[in-house]
Amino acid sequence: MKLDAVSQFKVLVVGDAIYDRYRFCDPQGRATKEAVISVVVNKEEEYQGGVWASARHILDLCKTVDVWHGDKATINTKYIGRYNQKLFSVHEKRVCSATKPLPIADYD
């Protein structure tokens, strides 16, 4: 099958709502009174991942791409130190508005 064959397809991508958040920071070392890492956040970037990332890739090949996800979103926050070293991650679950179910028969 040639890639041109899917260029007019209407695609539904079903998956998880994931937000990828990156916090670029300078580690300050261990806090003096607690056994925790202390950092100073310099900047933050956030991207839609999960189902949205997949849909973006498919959109390069197909004419129409729609997304459906449930009513929960995951926020993955990664703290990035010097030299793009991942220091630690925090994962949160949030309730969000679910997208309305779409008629699957309308898609290729």
Task: Write up this protein.
By secondary structure, the chain is mostly beta strands. 9% of the residues lie in helices and 56% in strands. The protein has one helix spanning 50-59, and strands spanning 10-30, 37-49, 64-80, 86-95. Strands 2-1-3-4 form a 4-stranded mixed β-sheet. The protein is elongated, with a radius of gyration of 19 Å. The two termini are 15 Å apart.
| Series of secondary-structure elements, N-terminal to C-terminal | EEHEE
Question: Proportion of β residues?
Answer: over 45%
Which ranges are low-confidence, i.e. pLDDT below 50, for 5 or more consecutive residues?
Answer: none
Number of helices: 1
Q: How is the main sheet built?
A: 4 strands, mixed
Question: Which structural class is indicated by helix and strand composition?
Answer: mainly beta
Question: Features of this protein?
Answer:
mainly beta; elongated; 108 residues
Helix-strand blueprint:
Elements lengths: L9 E21 L6 E13 H10 L4 E17 L5 E10 L13
Parallel strand pairs: 1-3
Antiparallel strand pairs: 1-2, 3-4
Outline:
The chain is mainly beta and 108 residues long. It has one helix spanning 50-59, and strands spanning 10-30, 37-49, 64-80, 86-95. Strands 2-1-3-4 form a 4-stranded mixed sheet.
